[in-house]
Amino acid sequence: MRTRLVGEGFATGIGMLIDTSRNGWGGPARPSLASTSTNRNVFVEQSRVDRRYRIMNWCNQAGAGLGERPRSAPAAGIDAYEWMKPPGESDGSSDPLRPDTDNRVVQPMCDPLYGGGIRNGYNPTGALPLAPPAGEWFPAAFRGLLANAYPPLP
């Protein structure tokens, strides 16, 4: 993306911040090698690290893990890896007993039982159950981020 931006006229000194707070994915089940299948669909499915049903699924994803640890200048053109979204902070409510600040009981994309919609190709959400409203502490999500961290936590 940085190369494309520079190619479109952005300054060559532009840097990037990359949020790695949810991109660890997989923990011990993370694929370590690319698939050897010659079937394109099987190859992609067996090789992909991000296990969301669809990239449009964003809310409290089961299987998400902490990614690279925050650090400055990890590579040329990258100013920092950072955890923009604090680990353990809920993305939105899936708990019908806890409405959010807009008084919504459950946000559909945060409901693990929601069957999906046009934006995510009518796929399951992959969200964790009983999530509190956005911004509140969500212990189950925090434990999942630790368990699925990549690189693994010591």
Describe this structure in words.
The protein has a three-stranded mixed sheet, with no helix packed on it. The chain starts with a helix and ends in a 7-residue tail after the last helix. The longest helix is centred in the C-terminal third of the chain and has 9 residues, at 139-147. The protein contains three helices and three strands, in the order αβαββα. The model has no long low-confidence stretch (mean pLDDT 90). It is globular, with a radius of gyration of 18 Å. Strand 2 (71-75) and strand 3 (78-82) form a beta hairpin. The chain is largely without helices or strands.
Structural features:
little secondary structure, three-stranded mixed beta sheet, 15% helix
Secondary structure class reads: little secondary structure
Radius of gyration: 18 Å
Give me the side-by-side strand order of the main sheet. 1-3-2
In one word, what is the shape?
globular
**Strand residues, percent:** 5-15%
The helix/strand series, from N terminus to C terminus, equals HEHEEH
Query: What multimeric state do the chains show?
Result: single chain
Largest sheet: 3 strands, mixed
N/C terminus separation: 32 Å
Stretches where pLDDT is under 50 for at least 5 consecutive residues are none
Total strand count, please? 3
Average pLDDT metric? 90
Helix count, DSSP H or I runs of 4 or more residues: 3
Share of helix, binned:
10-25%
